[in-house]
């Protein structure tokens, strides 16, 4: 009988006290039980039975704990989350080596209990094997066809900027929360790619979809969901789990309705977006007698939800950090605005302007580096046994590539914990590419929206700074602007308000 079973049985039939006594006894009699003793696996702190290293973990900011542990155990180490063994990879050289040189070995996805329940292994983010390969390839092709690298899409971002700037102008320089307008503008870019059209900002269909997506990402990183992932049997006591499932169900329902509308007006000669394109592929496969392909309704739904979640929260959050940094560091904001007015004046910024705006480009990169919005990437899993840097790691082991440790690597960055755009500038003020800039991760599972995100970040950020001066809310000093991230699966700024004072 497994330890968990023993604990569960004790919990239900005797009492919590009884179960704890059992645990204590098991612990006392298993004094030789430590992660170092399990084969030749990476070292790590000694785990308690069942709890693993839970008591050492800062559940709100687990990446902090892992950064601390890497100082003691090195760049490849083991922690136990409950009874689950997780290998942490830390530092630029190690993370890069694992994800790029051992791309296959470290390229599977580990799906947490909560994401397994909601995705069913479909879509891109939480999938593996042939289904993942097909969905990833199809999503990438379509992101290219309907978005990335296309002039038409660049024009769509520029058009969305106009709507967004109008919203900010309506605030008339008064303090506002940057979350909703930025989320909506960025979400509309995904809507254009996925459904083939944007929504009005006051459309309740749209606002609810965006709000739920935002809330889901927050819940996914909440301490109670993390504990639930380790001990799924506590499920019914976790209110956040219930809320998350309710919201995912509502998002699925809403998408099914949107798909029905698209099907009613579907024209195979003219694909409007990703959904049409998927339906067309599905239809062609069915007509050719292939009924067992991966192009089925669940994969469509899950891939759309993935693109929406991964493509909205990340880019919007990065933009919000960018504006917060500008308000906090007004001298850097001055330099960006000086460069923008000198190089492009009042005309609309385009992607091709990037090369002539090295300072602005450096500020965007530094925003992504310091904001570190996906601190532990998304969990990976080894696809086969691997010996890495002398450590044996078994097939199926969960792996966290600690992106924080790359973006804050002291041997790569001069001022890892400060906002220092010069990280990305050479001595002549030209833009300098840095290898350790890895906010999109690397290897087989690297972000598939990177080009799209970079395009959006550049156009939205430059347009904001061309039109407005960002300052803290009245009565708040620059020093008082808090850079502590909010708890969530991605790291967004803590709630705050800024003023956008029109300067055009
Ligand atoms: C600033 C913006 C963004 C950042 C920082 C970012 C970062 C990341 C990171 C760190 C991962 C995990 C990689 C890994 O597991 O090793 C990821 C995966 C992913 N991203 Fe992004 N992302 C951004 C924008 C986007 C956009 C705009 C889209 C889509 C339109 C997107 C779609 C995805 C998908 C589908 C995956 C899962 C890939 C897979 O499992 O094969 N991301 N992203």
Automatic annotation (TrEMBL):
Cofactor section: heme
Pfam family, one: p450
Main localisation: endoplasmic reticulum
Location in the cell: Endoplasmic reticulum membrane; Microsome membrane
Keywords: Endoplasmic reticulum, Heme, Iron, Membrane, Metal-binding, Microsome, Monooxygenase, Oxidoreductase, Transmembrane, Transmembrane helix
Binding site for heme: 447
GO biological process annotation, one example: aflatoxin metabolic process
TM ranges: 6-30
GO CC field: endoplasmic reticulum membrane
Lineage top rank: taxon: Eukaryota
GO MF, one example: metal ion binding
Entry similarity comment: Belongs to the cytochrome P450 family.
Protein name per its UniProtKB record: Cytochrome P450 2K1-like
Origin species: Pagothenia borchgrevinki
């Amino acid at each position: 009988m497994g330890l968990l079973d023993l604990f569960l049985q004790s919990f239900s039939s005797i009492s919590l006290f009884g179960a704890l006594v059992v645990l204590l006894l098991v612990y006392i009699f298993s004094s030789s039980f430590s992660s170092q003793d399990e084969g030749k696996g990476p070292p790590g702190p000694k785990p308690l039975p069942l709890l693993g290293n839970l008591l050492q973990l800062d559940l709100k900011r687990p990446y902090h704990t892992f950064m601390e542990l890497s100082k003691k155990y090195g760049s490849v180490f083991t922690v136990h989350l409950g009874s689950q063994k997780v290998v942490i990879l830390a530092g630029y050289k190690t993370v890069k080596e694992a994800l790029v040189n051992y791309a296959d070995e470290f390229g599977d996805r580990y799906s947490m209990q909560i994401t397994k329940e909601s995705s069913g292994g479909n879509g891109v983010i939480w999938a593996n094997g042939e289904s993942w390969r097909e969905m990833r390839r199809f999503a990438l092709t379509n992101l290219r066809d309907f978005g990335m690298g296309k002039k038409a899409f660049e024009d769509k971002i520029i058009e969305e900027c106009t709507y967004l700037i109008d919203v900010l102008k309506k605030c008339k320089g008064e303090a506002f929360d940057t979350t909703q307008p930025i989320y909506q503008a960025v979400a509309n870019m995904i809507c254009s790619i996925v459904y083939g059209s944007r929504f009005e900002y006051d459309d309740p269909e749209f606002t609810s979809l965006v709000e739920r997506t935002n809330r889901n990402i927050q819940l996914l990183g909440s301490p109670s969901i993390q504990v639930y992932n380790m001990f799924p049997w506590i499920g019914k006591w976790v209110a956040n789990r219930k809320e998350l499932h309710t919201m995912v169900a509502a998002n699925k329902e809403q998408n099914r309705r949107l798909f029905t509308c698209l099907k009613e007006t579907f024209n195979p000669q003219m694909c409007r977006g990703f959904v049409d394109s998927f339906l067309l592929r599905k239809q062609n496969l069915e007509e050719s007698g292939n009924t067992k392909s991966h192009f089925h309704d669940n994969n469509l739904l899950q891939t759309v939800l993935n693109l929406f979640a991964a493509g909205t929260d990340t880019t919007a959050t990065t933009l919000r950090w960018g504006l917060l940094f500008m308000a906090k560091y007004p001298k850097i904001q001055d330099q960006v605005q000086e460069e923008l007015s000198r190089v492009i004046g009042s005309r609309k910024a385009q992607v091709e302007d990037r090369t002539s705006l090295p300072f602005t480009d450096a500020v965007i990169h530094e925003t992504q580096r310091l904001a570190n919005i996906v601190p532990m990437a998304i969990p990976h899993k080894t696809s086969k046994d691997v010996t890495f840097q002398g450590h044996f790691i078994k097939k199926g082991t969960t792996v966290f590539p600690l992106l924080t440790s790359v973006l804050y690597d002291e041997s790569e960055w001069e001022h890892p914990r400060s906002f220092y755009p010069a990280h990305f500038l050479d001595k002549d003020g030209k833009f300098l590419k840095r290898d350790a800039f890895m906010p999109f991760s690397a290897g087989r599972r690297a972000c598939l929206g990177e080009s799209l995100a970079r395009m959006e970040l550049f156009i939205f950020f430059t347009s904001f700074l061309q039109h407005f001066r960002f300052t803290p809310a009245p009565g708040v000093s620059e020093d008082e602007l808090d850079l502590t991230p909010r708890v969530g699966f991605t790291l967004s700024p803590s709630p705050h308000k800024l003023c956008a004072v029109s300067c055009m």
